[in-house]
Amino acid sequence: MSEVRTDKALSMLSANPKQTALLLDVDGTLAPIVNNPVDASVPIEVRTTLIELGRRFGLVACISGRQADEARRIVGAGGLTYIGGHGSERLLPGATEPEVDNALAPWSERVNAVAAAAARDLSALGIRREDKGAVAALHYRGVADEDQAAEALELVAARASADGLAIHWGRKVLELRPPVPFNKGIAVTELIEGGSFETVLYAGDDRTDLDSFDALDSLLESGKLKQVLKLGVLSSEAPPEIGRASDLVVTGTDGVAEFLGRLLAVSDK
Fold first, then answer.
1. How far from chain centre, in Å, is Cα 76?
2. Domains of the chain by range and CATH?
3. pLDDT (tens digit per residue) in 130-162
4. For residue range 72-88, what is the model confidence (pLDDT) as tens digits?
5. Rounded to the nearest 5°, which phi and psi values hold at 251?
6. 25 belongs to the catalytic site
7. Which helix (H) or strand (E) holds 101?
8. In whole angstroms, what is the distance from residue 197 CA to residue 138 CA?
9. Which of the residues 25, 101, 205, 211 is marked catalytic?
């Protein structure tokens, strides 16, 4: 991480905090990647930093492929905004239930039925199902034979696609989705256009975060934003596109924690 570029980025973000939005992916960005998704959590020092940033900046939002209430559990900060299910859900500060996209809700039962059947048929391979509302995930990270599991899930993906569902491959996970347009980028656009922001930071580590990068580029080009910082989080599993598309990169969740800590420090001055 270049110190000169980092200092410039921190100065840009802290110049007018109330008109600055901080948008942060959760898994692999705030929370370290773990074999079992239910074990993920944001370190307490990062949680504390996020809470303090939420008091200073116009918006701090955590954007996740998980359900919004699950993302809030992992982050552990109730005063932030949570976008879940890759943009299909929004959980505002103080809310007890997330707002769900009406176009996606009718597909939830069908998506999860297909995923449940696949997880049952492939249970011997150790594949785990995660319910994400209108999205269902089939994880194979840490199973005995990841290559065999991936091959089996290729067949699941083909059948789901033939059945009219949309599919998405992530980091050692297959997601089954409704055939309705939605992604993190669409959610980011709606979030920013619904507020009054000049500057936006987005931090992410996976292919789904590239949609957010593209969305922010479009908002910048259209003049709806004045400044954008795309912070790429690099790791051995991060796609190379993340580094290429980023304005600044850090290494792993530790790098993100350090960057956010420094941002908090300069925003206090």
1. 15
2. 3-100+182-267 (3.40.50.1000), 105-177 (3.30.70.1020)
3. 887 788 889 999 899 999 999 999 999 999 999
4. 999 999 899 999 988 88
5. -105, 115
6. yes
7. none
8. 37
9. 25
